[in-house]
Design brief:
By secondary structure, this protein is α+β, with helices and mostly antiparallel strands. Helices cover 20% and strands 31% of the residues. The chain contains six helices and 18 strands.
């Protein structure tokens, strides 16, 4: 499960890091939501009540929580929970299930309703697993369904606003095409602004924080062909000290690199 989402992040040209629940507890849900606008609970199967409450509060505080299959299925002693699944997250997510199935082969996914620009491309599939998702009410939006005479009765991916944030539930294991589209959308919705992601396939974007607390972005062009990168936020060029407005196109030559500091 972790690999499915990390592959999607890679294919989308985004960045990610893995965190343990103990690390999350070192911050309040609101603090983490302000720092990390998207959090994927890929298959957080064994979890305490407090863990699941933290995830719920993260979404309500403004984060975009993406929940994968089996999250919240077992308690801290690895016993199947008695609560309706996903346990302690069902009301916030606006979806629940009591049936699930293994998949012998990938199932094509067809787009459902569009929420803030999610574009599910052709060829996207769900693999390995399918939860029989049941939206609780009209506040839950179906983002994708299975193209199948039996499984098509259930949504594959749903989303719902939760407090100041959002919970997206993925009831299958997305293939790289579906995962990349989902991660791109999740970041843009969660951050509320375009992501610092490559503008062309030949580019990569790496982001870190310097000692002054500034966000530094390194844009590479891994090609003999020149390319342009569109800045998603106002920045300052590290070498020239030039002020760059949002939407500025940075020109990159063959095997070129540009380093900018995002303006707060």
């Amino acid at each position: 499960m972790y690999e499915a989402y990390s592959r999607g992040v890679f294919e989308a040209g985004l960045q990610t890091n893995a965190v343990h629940m103990a690390q999350l507890r070192e911050q309040t849900p609101a603090e983490f939501a302000a720092l990390r606008p998207v959090l994927v609970a890929a298959a957080f199967t064994i979890a305490t009540d407090e863990d699941l409450a933290w995830l719920r509060q993260y979404a309500e505080a403004g984060g975009h929580l993406v929940v994968g299959i089996r999250t919240g299925y077992e308690d801290q002693k690895a016993r199947a929970r008695l609560e309706r699944k996903p346990a302690l997250l069902d009301e916030t997510a606006g979806v629940w299930y009591d049936e699930f199935s293994n998949l012998r082969e990938p199932l094509p996914l067809i787009p459902g309703e569009t929420v803030e620009g999610l574009a599910l491309p052709g060829g996207a599939s769900g693999t390995l697993w399918a939860d029989g998702l049941q939206p609780t009410d009209d506040s839950t939006t179906v983002l994708a369904r299975y193209e199948h005479p039996h499984y098509g009765r259930w949504p594959a991916i749903t989303t719902r606003e939760a407090g100041a944030g959002r919970v997206t539930y993925v009831g299958t294991v997305p293939d790289p095409i579906a995962s990349a589209a989902l991660m791109t959308w999740a970041v843009e919705v969660g951050a509320g602004t375009p992501a610092w992601a490559r503008s062309t396939d030949s580019q990569s974007v790496s982001t870190s924080t310097n000692g002054a607390g500034e966000r530094v972005h390194v844009i590479h062009n891994w090609s003999w062909e020149p390319s342009a990168f569109t800045l998603p936020a106002a920045s300052r060029d590290v070498l020239s000290d030039e002020e760059l407005a949002t939407g500025t196109e940075l020109e990159l030559g063959a095997w070129d690199v540009r380093v900018v500091i995002e303006k707060s």
